[in-house]
Design brief:
The protein has 13 helices and 20 strands. With about 475 residues, it is of the alpha+beta class. It is globular. This is phospholipase D.
């Protein structure tokens, strides 16, 4: 497919976080809160593609509408229509999907999706799935779109049903003639098996009765990067593509609104998933950012599972607890705010759902290896109330005709000190962080020194980065109901 260049930093030294990619200076980075704006920009970027499109997803539904509303523009925004049009114009389209084997116990109908996409325009649409069978425990969890190697989109959003949402997070949708969530997009996996949605290529067919069932609102974070950071996104894709066909590891700047930043791609990738070495640079980046936090840590994540002991193996919760201990002993003001779903996606009676909840509670407060227990061991006399002045966990809900439904937090994002941000596909658990399990990709975005605004931190003058600060404020305004019409 392609030959890959050397990802070493200047003068050949290893890259920060032991990543495959160096930090790129002065790239344009843009954040997206929820699917509406992200899918809108992805649709526009696809429509402007001149040479090639790379897409890697955990799950992809070709009949997903990237725009909502009325008119021909919306009708033409259906993903399969967009891709077929670009392929007919000579644009080469490469799509990598996770092959969820039957042994994995999950049916996303990837084979049907692959065959359908290839049939649209065989000359220029190429689709690969991986792995063929093993390992059955892990998945390809990256969500990545790269256009002409000049702009890359990555984060928590797969291009599949149920991901499009806006800040209103409506849980009902009765307007059939002008539906925001047509057919399969009106879904609630808490009550209906996920494969029912994946099995439908007709996006206008309702799978659940919207008169009686609420939809599950979806909160997510995505971003885009340009220039050399986009080329690093391409490198990751090409390396995985070549690996999927048993190849080797050999492999225009686009004007985009956003903020001037330095950006570095990080990932979880290993010998089974496409890298010649085991890489856990996402994990290294999280630990480094937490360890160097001075004022606050803000996290949104689908999962929060780790340990301050041997198991689970990732020690992100321990690093946060250690930071809190340091600040409590110094009597400094410091805040950790963590937003997670109120419960995992799926049947609440299922053993897997209950196990995830158990691990989450054990991570936070229950048992001898929890964050709270760690802090109490290291800060004499610390009470739960003392700790809660430093650490705050919260979930999201919305209200509608059907009274209430939780908003499913699917973000994989952390902001530290209004200055540095990590956005990607990686959850806070062993699957995503250890590098030898699920494949993941993320980007560490640091505001350029010239891209600052003057704010206050703990009552004192502070220079906040425009990207990090504006993303945090946008999330908080949405969560606190301070956006228009909320």
């Amino acid at each position: 497919m392609y030959h890959l260049d050397n990802r070493k930093g200047a003068e050949g030294e290893a890259c920060r976080f032991n990543s495959y990619a160096p930090e790129r200076q002065k790239v344009r980075a843009k954040w997206y809160v929820d699917g509406k704006d992200a899918f809108q920009d992805i649709a526009l970027a696809i429509s402007l593609a001149k040479e090639e499109i790379f897409i890697a997803d955990w799950c992809l539904h070709p009949t997903l509408y990237l725009l909502r509303g009325d008119g021909k523009e919306v009708a033409d925004s259906r993903l399969d229509i967009l891709l077929k049009k670009k392929a007919s114009q000579g644009v080469r389209i490469y799509i990598l999907l996770w092959n969820e084997t039957s042994l994995a116990g999950l049916n996303l109908n990837t084979k049907k999706t692959k065959n359908y996409l290839k049939s649209l325009y065989p000359k220029n649409i190429y689709v690969k799935t991986h792995p063929k069978q093993y390992p059955v425990e892990w998945s390809h969890h990256q969500k990545l779109v790269v256009i002409d190697q000049s702009i890359g989109f990555l984060g928590g959003l797969d291009m599949c049903y149920g991901r499009w949402d806006d800040y209103k997070h409506n849980i009902t949708d009765m307007n059939h003639s002008h539906s925001k969530y047509p057919g399969n997009d009106y879904q609630n996996p808490n009550y209906h098996a996920y494969y029912k949605y994946a099995d439908k290529l007709d996006s206008f067919t309702d799978v659940i009765d919207r008169e009686y069932s609420t939809r599950q609102a979806w909160h997510d974070i995505h971003c885009s990067v340009t220039g050399l950071a986009a080329k690093d996104c391409s490198f990751n894709f090409v390396e995985r593509w070549n690996f999927s066909i048993n190849g080797s590891k050999d492999s225009k700047e686009n004007k985009n609104e956003g903020f001037l930043c330095n950006a570095q791609l990080v990932r979880s990738l290993c010998k089974w998933s496409g890298s010649p070495r085991d890489e856990q640079s996402v994990y290294a980046a999280y630990l480094h950012l937490i360890d160097n936090a001075k004022h606050y840590i803000y996290i949104e994540n689908q999962y929060f599972i780790g340990s301050t002991s041997d198991l689970p193996k990732n020690v992100i919760p321990e690093y946060i607890a250690r930071k809190v201990v340091e600040k409590m002993k110094a009597k400094e003001v410091f805040r950790v705010i963590i937003v997670v779903p109120s419960h995992p996606e799926g049947d609440m009676a299922a053993s897997t759902t209950q196990q995830i909840m158990k691990y989450s509670y054990n991570t936070i407060k229950n048992g001898p290896n929890s964050m709270f227990s760690y802090i109490k061991k290291h800060v004499t006399g610390a009470t739960d109330k003392d700790i809660e002045n430093y650490i705050f966990f919260c979930t999201l809900r919305n209200y509608g005709f059907a009274v209430t439904e939780h908003i499913y937090v699917h973000s994989k994002m952390m902001i530290v000190d209004d200055y540095i941000t990590i956005i990607g596909s990686a959850n806070i658990n062993d699957r995503s962080m250890l590098g030898t399990r699920d494949s993941e990709i993320a980007v560490v975005i640091q505001d350029h020194p010239t891209s600052v605004i003057h704010t206050k931190m703990n009552g004192r003058h502070y220079k906040s980065g425009k990207f990090a600060h504006s993303l945090r404020i946008r999330c908080w305004r949405e969560h606190l109901g301070l956006l228009p019409s909320q």
